[in-house]
Amino acid sequence: MNSSPPITITRLDLQRLERLLDEQPDAAGAAALEQELARAQVVGHDQVPPGVVTMNSRVHCREENGGKDYHLTLVYPADAGREGTVSILAPVGSALLGLSVGQHIDWPGPNGKAIRLALLAVEYQPEAAGEYRR
Prior knowledge:
This protein is of the alpha/beta class. It has a five-stranded mixed sheet with strand order 5-4-3-7-6. A two-stranded parallel sheet has the order 1-2. 22% of the residues lie in helices and 28% in strands. The longest helix is centred in the first third of the chain and has 13 residues, at 11-23. Strand 3 and strand 4 form a beta hairpin.
């Protein structure tokens, strides 16, 4: 198994996600999210670089093999289900959190084969837009 890339998250996201895990400790994906949070470098919301995926960020990813593009917004479970949203508790959601532009993740595809996604851009990041009340 390849090692995961280094990630950065905001203190505010960490607090909110820890609260989510406290409220839903047995939710599918909770263990994977806990692992991501445990290895993250935590910074203040005013210190996160604009090319880092934070909660409610909209990202542009591309499959390395097939070249298919994805535009996804990383959301809390209550906001998931709409087109283009991915829950933080979904495998790709917890994998996206804290990634920087240029990094890659392996996303489990429907046939069990990993799909390698490259993070091309953070199209919208609440911190860069000065929106902290999410």
